[in-house]
Amino acid sequence: MTGEEYVAAAYAIVFVFVLVYVATIAAKLVRLQRDTAELLELARRREQA
Amino acid sequence: MSSAFSWIRALPALAALSAGLMGLALLFSFFIAPEDGDQGISQRIFYIHVPIALTAYFCFGLGAWKALLLLWRGEERHDLESYVAIHQGTIFGSLTLITGAIWAKASWGVWWSWDSNQLVLFLTLFLFYCAYFMLRFSLPEGPRRARSSAVYALFGVALIPVSFLAIRLAEDFVHPTTFTRDGPQMTGTMFTAFCVSWAAVTLLAYVLYRVELVGKRLHTDLRELREALE
Amino acid sequence: MSYLADVAALTRKDLRVELRAQDTLPAMLLFVFSTLVVFHFALPEGTGEDAAYGLLWVAIVFTALLGLARAWVPEQEHGVFDALVLAPCDRSAIWVGKTLATLAFLLAAQVVALPAFALFFAPLDAVALVGVLLADIGICAVGSLLAAMAAAGRARELLLPLLLLPLASPLIVGGVGAAISTEPGRYLLLLALYDGIFAVLSWASFEYVVTES
């Protein structure tokens, strides 16, 4: 591997780490959205009762 | 008590600033800073590797500061803040080791060198903080876990200067020391590039830390809400 | 002076318990000897003395781990831990007592093991021995605290080595350096500094680790 390829690899890995982070945040958002939906359902049931 | 939400309005602005600084840092690192005479183009890894290493230390320091606040003031929120900071620190720590290995391969031809004390001692600190998670996962949730984690986090920070002393005491000829006691051994433009890069990576880490905290606090709040409704 | 009296009482208690039960010290002794035998097989023909010093330090650390793993067990087995914490003494005195007791066991094991090492592997001069002593203090100081942390959770035998080994690495650097280097003063200074910093930290933070509020 040439010098340029090493530099590219190093910066690319940093980029990939940040993207993986975005992916984990996305997964967390999905979970939060599901939790909120369940709680909304619970609140609605309470209001009706 | 989710005091993180008072900061939340500042978060998108901080994230945008981080993106802008990172762009500037990349511009400096690749186009403005001159090429190094000795190492050639692979020296440019320095502009991302060293800031990431320093940021890892910064995160561990932040974690230790929050830990100290927990022990001193007893406010529960500091436990989560400390945990998230140390989590960030280990992520940046692993990035340090990876980018460092790439730089090592580019400059010295090997992925790792046991001869370099600086490498080995960073690895030690990294392992220390990995064990932090082992400690946390083996203790049941509660004040005991929070306090033990806090004390452990503080020990890690105390380990840093002792480790550095061990580096300086034992001779180190392999790992390049760019910052000697005489000051930075590089030209003005290179130093600027380095500083911009350092600011960018530190801010990125802080933004990620805040984002993580918001997520975790939301989760706790929802759990409390669930208990109130059921 | 009642602080010192408390420490003395606690240390005496641990030593007495060990003298009667005799499970920790014999195990440590046997372990360190078995390890030395393993070294003989592990070190290939013609390796220099330096490798032997390195392995010595591995043996010391693992023997210490063995002792430390059992350090808080008497308290836990008989439910004495909570009673100790409630006792009208400064909690940090509990730490000092435990550290001194563990140090005593480690030194006792080494008094036998080190001459054996010097006889069969490589000589140990006064500087190396000072290094061993300083490192012992450091290992026992942080080890007692970490063992107390680990004791509250599950898989505590697994957890203690994970917690101790990274923290103890400057001690190994110092100890091996003191034995090998031509300028051992710096390494002894490192060991002394480590002991100073971490003993004070452990002493101050023990209270927080064992109490809930």
List keywords for this structure.
heterotrimer; A: 49 residues; mainly alpha; 1 helix; rod-shaped; B: 230 residues; two-stranded antiparallel ribbon; 6 helices; 2 strands
How would you describe what is shown here?
The complex is a heterotrimer of chains A (49), B (230) and C (213). Chain A has 49 residues and is mainly α. Chain A is built from one helix and no strands. Chain A has a domain of 34 residues. Chain A is 94% helix and 0% strand. Chain B has six helices and two strands. In chain B, 41% of the residues are buried. Chain B is 76% helix and 2% strand. Chain C is globular and about 55 Å long. Chain C is mainly α and 213 residues long. Chain C contains nine helices and no strands. At the B-C interface, α4 and α5 of B face α7, α8 and α9 of C.
**Number of separate helices of chain C:** 9
- Assembly state here? heterotrimer
Average pLDDT over all residues of chain C: 87
Portion in helices of chain C: over 70%
Q: In angstroms, what is the radius of gyration of chain A?
A: 21 Å
Structure summary, number of beta strands of chain C: 0
Shape of chain A: rod-shaped
First CA to last CA of chain A: what distance?
69 Å
Number of discrete helical segments of chain A: 1
The low-confidence runs of chain A, each spanning 5 or more residues with pLDDT under 50, are none
Largest sheet entry of chain C: none
Which structural class do you get from the secondary structure elements of chain A? mainly alpha
* Proportion of strand residues of chain C: under 5%
Strand proportion of chain A, as a percent range, falls in under 5%
Low-confidence stretches of chain C: none
- Helix-strand topology string of chain C: HHHHHHHHH
Pairing-aware structural class of the strands and helices of chain C? mainly alpha
Biggest β-sheet strands, sense, barrel of chain A: none
Global outline of chain C: globular
What string gives the helices and strands of chain A in order? Answer: H
What fraction, in percent, of the residue positions of chain A are helical?
over 70%
